[in-house]
């Protein structure tokens, strides 16, 4: 079910760049991030790919999502999920070095 939900969200976001900004107030991804450590690796990867899409394609800094990831990393619920999260965060900072400052502001660093 979670995989289907993420696929639907991804489809909506990919269909028009404005859709993310229209739906941002629903806090869909930050809420998803709160329980991502309980999901399968496949679902975690889909979630983090969606986060990368927001950064790479929309050129947007998803602060709410990053704050949720900061909380996820600090809670240390799942080592494998934390590793996947860190790989995504590393990919993002490689894409744009400004994210070093963003990570400090949202509590990741």
The largest sheet, given as strand count, sense and whether it forms a barrel, is: none
Along the chain, the helix and strand elements come as HHHHHHH
Distance between the termini: 33 Å
Backbone shape: globular
Number of domain modules? 1
Number of helices: 7
Q: Considering DSSP H and I runs of 4 or more, what fraction of the residues is helical?
A: over 70%
Strand content: under 5%
> How does the helix and strand content classify structurally?
mainly alpha
**Low-confidence spans:** none
| DSSP E strands, number | 0
Radius of gyration: 13 Å
InterPro entries: BEACH_domain_protein
Keywords: WD repeat
Task: Walk me through the structure.
By secondary structure, the protein is an all-alpha fold. It has helices at 2-15, 18-23, 28-34, 41-56, 63-75, 79-95, 99-106. The protein has one domain (2-106). The mean pLDDT is 94. Helix 1 packs parallel to helix 4 (41-56). It contains seven helices and no strands. Keywords: WD repeat.
């Amino acid at each position: 079910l979670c995989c289907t939900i993420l696929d639907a969200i991804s489809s909506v976001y990919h269909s028009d760049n404005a859709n993310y900004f229209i739906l941002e107030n629903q806090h869909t991804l930050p809420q998803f991030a709160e329980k991502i450590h309980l999901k399968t690796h496949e679902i975690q990867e889909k979630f983090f790919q969606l986060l990368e899409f927001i950064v790479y394609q929309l050129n947007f800094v998803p602060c709410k999502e990053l704050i949720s990831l900061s909380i996820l990393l600090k809670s240390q619920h799942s080592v494998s999920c934390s590793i996947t999260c860190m790989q995504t965060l590393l990919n993002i900072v490689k894409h744009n070095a400004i994210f070093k400052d963003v990570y400090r502001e949202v509590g990741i660093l």
